[in-house]
Amino acid sequence: MAISELVGVYDADGGLLGEAAYVWGRLRGTRHCGLCDITHSTVRRKAEWDRMAASLPVPVRLLHLNELDDGLRRAVASTGAPVVLGREGDEWRRVVGREELDEMAGSVGALEVVLRRRLGDPAGGTG
Predict the structure, then answer these.
(1) Most C-beta atoms within 10 A of its C-beta, which of 20, 43, 61, 111?
(2) In Å, how far are 79, 106, 125 from 109, measured between CA atoms?
């Protein structure tokens, strides 16, 4: 079965308090989210991310831990966060995990190559 949607789940809560807690932890060296590094610069979402996500053959959503429905919460409980999950029918499966996201060192292009390969997109990524 083919992937019909991607969801990137940050290892952080959303909202003002969640964002502040993440930034504080990041400054202290106690928090890190490889997906955050890929999608965001220091102060805002990367335009490169938005362009890449819009060019993929399936829709892409980005969610925080406190924004998950029950199905996504169960998937993240088994995979950990940050993670990129793919919907196959009624199920979610890991497409890119924490270690791979960390190895991408904030590179939108590196994530694009992996996503396109795993989606079977003949357009391929440019890296």
Answers:
(1) 111
(2) 23, 9, 7
